């Protein structure tokens, strides 16, 4: 075998010398890493060392990390402007620069931190992984326990505006009989939950963990709710059908029949037999298939996304480039960034600060890559008919990736107890239309109370 050892070059000798000197002096980069690893939460020590105990969590991000975030944003090296006059090449430069300007100069993370700390936050270890969750009990008797799961590119911040309407319905024009005890967890690898260090934390394992979490909180019976990935977790939980699960409500239903899925896969024109609602869904799904490059990358090569950990702007643009039924980036988020209605689709209740709260949480917890791995751990079509028999309620919002027809929904959810098409709201329904969303959850799960 020939000798493949290369002679040491002068430039390599200089590098080794500099590296050795840096190690001897205490490398500046090591100091930077240490600063970035400062704890951003305080978690109560478990009694008797039992990590499965419910441990209160409080958030406090060191000011040095917020200063570093602003510095990195201001130091961004920008690409050239897109060469089209629309968003067909990705998040437009004007969009991300508008967000960056506010993020670096006017945005205040402490306001979000205070909102989160005003709620009961906890951590408990489940199956070897720390799971973070918000737990808000209603003051009303006979409130229904409900676990609500966020999606990607979201977090528990998506659900903050629905907490009071669901736990305190009488303050929002509803009946005390519609009250819920809410449990809002962070998915594995997201937010303040632990980052899995072994494979296997996909929707199935997460669904089982959520059942254990609810039992650990003392809830013998409960319902589940979800949108986006949270809807997938709810569907999987319904498929597993644990005896504790009363039923589910999803605003990201999985309803596509096998024949429709096959036609979409080969880019066939819509079948002539489709109804008007089915044709709308088919056209939306056909457009969606061209907008899921992010999902393909996260589902196959999540570790390659190093920019999500290194650059706030890389992270922000990646998280923004998520479609809804009105386009990509999601119309509501784009309108929120500019503070005005863009292309005829308003942001609803979502503000630029809401969007930045969510992105900043990803940045501070360094969960861009660990969150992406959830796609790599998922091994089935998120849109394929759920095929579940547990009681299910579905809200088909008009701005969702696709508006599921009732005909498909009835075939996918064999015990459909509620179906509605709200007038407003999209993929981020709890953010965009929290009042309508709360009304949908109440109405959808009301049959389970009898």
Automatic annotation (TrEMBL):
Which SUPFAM superfamilies does the entry link to?
alpha/beta-Hydrolases (SSF53474)
- InterPro entries, sorted: AB_hydrolase_fold (IPR029058), Epox_hydrolase-like (IPR000639), Epoxide_hydro_N (IPR010497), Epoxide_hydrolase (IPR016292), TAT_signal (IPR006311)
GO BP, one example?
epoxide metabolic process
Output the Gene Ontology terms for molecular function: epoxide hydrolase activity
Q: Kindly indicate where the leader peptide sits in this chain.
A: 1-34
Which part of the chain is the Epoxide hydrolase N-terminal domain? 55-158
Keywords in alphabetical order, please: Aromatic hydrocarbons catabolism, Hydrolase, Signal
Check the record and name the Gene3D superfamilies matching this protein. Answer: alpha/beta hydrolase (3.40.50.1820)
Which portions of this protein are annotated as coiled-coil regions? none
Say which domain of life the source belongs to. Bacteria
Assigned protein family = Belongs to the peptidase S33 family.
Name-wise, this protein is Pimeloyl-ACP methyl ester carboxylesterase
Source species? Paraburkholderia bryophila
């Amino acid at each position: 075998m020939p000798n493949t050892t290369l002679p040491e070059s002068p430039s390599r000798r200089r590098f080794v010398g500099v590296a050795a000197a840096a190690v001897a002096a205490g490398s500046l980069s090591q100091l930077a890493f240490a600063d970035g690893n400062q704890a951003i939460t305080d978690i109560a020590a478990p009694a008797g060392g039992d990590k499965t105990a419910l441990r209160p969590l409080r958030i406090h991000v060191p000011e040095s990390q917020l200063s570093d975030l602003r510095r990195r944003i201001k130091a961004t090296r920008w690409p050239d402007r897109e060469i089209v006059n629309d968003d067909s090449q990705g998040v437009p430069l004007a969009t991300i620069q508008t967000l960056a300007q506010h993020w670096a100069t006017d945005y205040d993370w402490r306001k979000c931190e205070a909102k989160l700390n005003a709620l009961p936050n906890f951590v408990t270890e489940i199956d070897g992984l720390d799971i973070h969750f918000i737990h808000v009990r209603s003051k009303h008797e006979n409130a229904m326990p409900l676990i609500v799961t966020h999606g990607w590119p979201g977090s528990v911040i998506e659900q903050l505006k629905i907490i009071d309407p669901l736990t305190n319905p009488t303050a929002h024009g509803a009946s005390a009989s519609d009250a819920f005890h809410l449990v809002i967890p962070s998915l594995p690898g997201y937010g303040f939950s632990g980052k899995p260090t072994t494979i296997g934390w996909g929707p199935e394992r997460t669904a089982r963990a959520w059942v254990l979490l609810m039992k650990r909180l003392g809830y013998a019976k409960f319902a589940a709710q979800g949108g986006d990935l949270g809807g997938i977790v709810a569907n999987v939980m319904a498929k597993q059908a644990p005896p504790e699960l009363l039923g589910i409500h999803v605003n990201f239903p999985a309803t596509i029949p096998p024949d429709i899925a096959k036609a979409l896969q080969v880019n066939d024109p819509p079948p002539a037999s489709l109804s008007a609602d089915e044709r709308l869904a088919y056209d939306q799904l056909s457009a969606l298939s061209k907008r899921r490059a992010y999902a393909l990358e996260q589902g196959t090569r999540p570790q390659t996304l190093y920019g999500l950990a290194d650059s706030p702007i890389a992270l922000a643009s990646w998280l923004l480039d998520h479609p809804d039924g009105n386009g990509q980036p999601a119309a509501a988020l784009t309108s929120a960034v500019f503070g005005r209605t863009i292309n005829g689709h308003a942001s609803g209740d979502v503000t630029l600060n809401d969007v930045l709260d969510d992105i900043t949480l990803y940045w501070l917890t360094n969960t861009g890559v660990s969150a992406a791995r959830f796609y790599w751990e998922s091994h089935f079509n998120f849109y394929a008919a759920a095929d579940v028999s547990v009681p299910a309620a579905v809200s088909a919002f008009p701005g969702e990736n696709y508006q599921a027809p009732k005909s498909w929904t009835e075939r996918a959810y064999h015990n459909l107890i509620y179906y509605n098409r709200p007038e407003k709201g999209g993929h981020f329904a709890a953010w965009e239309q929290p009042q309508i969303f709360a009304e949908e959850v109440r109405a959808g799960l009301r049959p389970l109370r009898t």
